[in-house]
Design brief:
mainly alpha
Length: 127
Amino acid sequence: MTIADESTSPEQTSAERPASHLRSAASHLGQAREHLTSGVREARSDFSSGVSQAREHLSSGMSDAMGSGKDAAREAKAELDDKFEKLIDQGKDMFAQAEDLIRSRPWTSFGAAFAAGFLIAKLTRRN
């Protein structure tokens, strides 16, 4: 007696044995399909949650970076405004000093301006 003969009952006919094996194989395939479907659902869920977490991290990182950039821009603008105001004040001081000098020595200032103009004209004049 062979192993196949031992696993089947003597009342099964030769036509019933393959049908029994096919039903058993179909049952195993059904279980495999259920396991595969379950695994795919879990993988989709895990992937979706991973994508959601990555999106949240990226969004918060971009928000933090933009906030830091805005803060740095505000600080730079405030510093540039201060320096610009100082330069404007220095320019006003220089004009005030030049005005005082011209008023205190008008002829000397006129002579210096004339001499400077004459030199510039000589240097820039073509032959």
